[in-house]
Amino acid sequence: MRLTVNGTSHEVDVEADMPLLWVLRDELGLTGTKYGCGVASCGACTVHIDGVAVLSCQTAVGDVGAGAVTTIEGLGTPDALHAVQAAWIAHQVAQCGYCQSGQIMQAASLLAENPSPSDAEIDEAMDGNLCRCGTYPRIRAAVQTAARSLQGA
Amino acid sequence: MGRARTIARRTFLIGSAALLGGVAFGVYKVKTPYPNPLEDGLADGSATFNPWVLIDSEKVTLITPHADKGQGVASAQAALIAEELDIEFGQFEISFGAPAKAYYNTGMADEGVPFMASDESRMAETVRGLAGSAMKLVAMQMTGGSTTMPDSFDKLREAGAVARETLKAAAAQQSGVPVGQLKTARGAVILPDGSEIAYTALAATAAGIAPVTGVALRDPSAWRLIGKPMQRLDMVAKSTGTLGYGLDIRHEGMLFATIRRNPQKGGAMLSYNAAAAEGMAGVKKIVPLADGVAVVADNTWRAFQAADAITFDWGPAPYPPEQAAHWEAIAASFTEDRLDKTWRDDGDTGAALAAGTPFSAEYRAPYVAHQPLEPLNATILVTDERVDIWCGHQTISMIEGAVAAITGHDTSQVHFHNHFIGGSFGHWLELGFVEQAAEVANQMRGVPIKLTYSREEDFAQDFPRQPGIARGQGIVKDGHVEAVDLQIAMPSVLGSQMGRLGISIPGPDSQISAGAWNNPYALPNYRMRAYRVPELAPVSSWRSVGASANGFFFDSFLDELIHEAGADPMAERIRLMQHEVSRKVLEAVAEMSSWGGALAPGKGRGVAFVESFGVPVAEVVEVTDTEEGIRIDKVWVAADVGTVVDPVNFENLVQGGVIFGLGHAMNCEITYAGGAAEQVNFYDAEGMRFHQCPEIVVRGLENGHKVRGIGEPPVPPAAPALANAIFAATGQRLREMPFNKFVDFA
């Protein structure tokens, strides 16, 4: 089947029920998207389909169809950062960093939908994204910074 | 601290075979440095001055051998070298280096000696010195116990200073300008005329010069980096999905494996049936192991699917199958024959209790899982000539030997390549998953094998934090706390964990008492007795180890007694605190939180103080009793690490430690049924999520004389501060974790 990821079309030969997560990681080598729980319990695998955050561990690749998949690698790069990534770096959010790809993808989706969320709205939107290191205070601050940055742009 | 000296003399018994070995080896061996591993195969024109600095004509590489599992020590180690080397972030690369005796951890010694951290007497320092010598002889390269900063702070600055002075000598030789007229900055030697010679341009000359030693370290007033906000080196990669964790390793021809082992940990595999798995898509090989089966496939998910299709007949665990029996075993251990050690016996506690009507309370701390977000994994390639291991790990010096024992290679043929780790909290100290990957890879020589635990398997095989019960009796008199008698019973985490590494630790286990015996309060009567429960389920160090439970026990009981005495929780702690550095921590958190001010209805505040890993930490938690349950509004934290290396990272780690301590105290336990952990994924044990996270205000103090680590110490005071706050708000005492068994949280 054909799959469009970060603007590139790929032919992948896998079962239709394989979760998108494992197609990205093991078949396409896009390892920025992380495996954490496999059961929609941590958010580490969050990617965008047509700009909306989805859990790639819960998305069968056969259901993606013509949807445009964006992963953390496609959101921005070290040389061309997305505003959310720039805010994450400015606030030095990460500790171990393993959940942060998912956090950033969730936050970018939130801000696309709600350009100036309140702290309560941030907490609600981000509640499915587990951070075992406890970087939540910095994530809150970084989302606010990114919101201001995106609105000013 | 005269009293502490008395205690130490009475209890002067080092529970460490390592120390005895050190004394026997004598001074010569202790003073001889280990060889520099960077000299192995050093290219022509490359210069290395010590095990931490490597310069060639292209680049400067700093070796940061302590494992980075999110605590930021890759950056922090580099900063210590760069401080004296006069090089800026962005001008060097970092490498974890290869395992080597030169990278042995000197910082592990302090935790093993029976002296309070606040005791800086000559006796205590002498024994710490001896223990440090022993650590060198053992040459354990290991990251843990919040020791990276204590181990590295002087050593790495000296490494930078030696490299700098040697580069200046090379520049003098190259330019003819006397060394005394040379300066250094931004990765270059600066000549009197202002022209610069980059360090990389000096490598070839420096390679022929003996390192300049005996260089004095700079005064703190001259520091450019230390103490100022830094930009951690891993932030860009971790914010763009470009940092390669162990799980992200890819090699040509690599296959993907997973494993199922007996969830009744330590039990046998009686039989298995893999017939259904063998024909499944992508499955390459089914590999039986001693107590489980690995599946090798061409994709991780296919390996997971096939492993799910295998049926097993498991033998029983060597521990009681049901949780209730674990609690019964602990409760039955407050006996003379299980007394591990009386860690403290100030005044005459027995007489004080007999003279009044003691107040009593009992506390419990459950098993808790580590479960960092990166699942256990290791990638290994075995060929007849060599073995390569790619993964993150904290017990660095033992990996190559453990794998060699499986593959039959000489240890010199086995090469471990360390990686950034996606969280640990003690989980990545264990060797098991690497050994299992090695068994699989050894049966498939020539093929790189990446073994990945599913989250469910990771939960099932986790060796959790040891559970414990504490019994307190106390006396209050004239509005003050007069006597505390605390008994703690728990299995030995050191015995369980070190036993798996094949290391026998004789003597008492300091982690049964850590966080409870070593608080620097001057109570008129204080007795603390530790009881060793016979091994139950296997357990392992969990962020802050013994103090994570014992801090809750001691501080909660102290708070109850202060309440019984009718005293103010903050004022009484400050009154009792005899150690100045610790008292200032309490005073700081009182000032930060405006302790004593009026609170709105439904609100309550609790304070707790625990010293662990030499770091005194005080926390104030404020909660509101809402219709939806208890909501944590705000936390104030003060901690003293002697020197704050990077205030930004310091704040992040303290906030994270508080969240870790609160989240697990509120929401998490591991319980056993049928010999297996009942909690199977994050929905059963998630720590804290966003909506429960309070604002956390942090202050780092620098009154202590020694540089300490901050990874673990913020955890222990969080649970008692929260319990004390809930009591203040509701009148309900919480004496058992997790608290959500007794109250709802909003």
From TrEMBL, chain A:
It comes from the Bacteria. Pfam families: Fer2, Fer2_2. InterPro entries: 2Fe-2S-bd, 2Fe-2S-bd_dom_sf, 2Fe-2S_ferredoxin-like_sf, 2Fe-2S_ferredoxin-type, 2Fe2S_fd_BS, Beta-grasp_dom_sf, Diverse_Oxidoreductases. CDD domains: fer2. PROSITE patterns: 2FE2S_FER_1, 2FE2S_FER_2. Residues 1-75 form the 2Fe-2S ferredoxin-type domain. PANTHER family: BLR6218 PROTEIN, OXIDOREDUCTASE WITH IRON-SULFUR SUBUNIT. This is Isoquinoline 1-oxidoreductase subunit alpha.
Automatic annotation (TrEMBL), chain B:
Residues 240-318 form the Aldehyde oxidase/xanthine dehydrogenase a/b hammerhead domain. SUPFAM superfamilies: Molybdenum cofactor-binding domain. InterPro entries: Ald_Oxase/Xan_DH_a/b, AldOxase/xan_DH_MoCoBD1, AldOxase/xan_DH_MoCoBD2, AldOxase/xan_DH_Mopterin-bd_sf, N-heterocyclic_Hydroxylase, OxRdtase_Mopterin-bd_su_IorB. Pfam families: MoCoBD_1, MoCoBD_2. This is Aldehyde dehydrogenase.
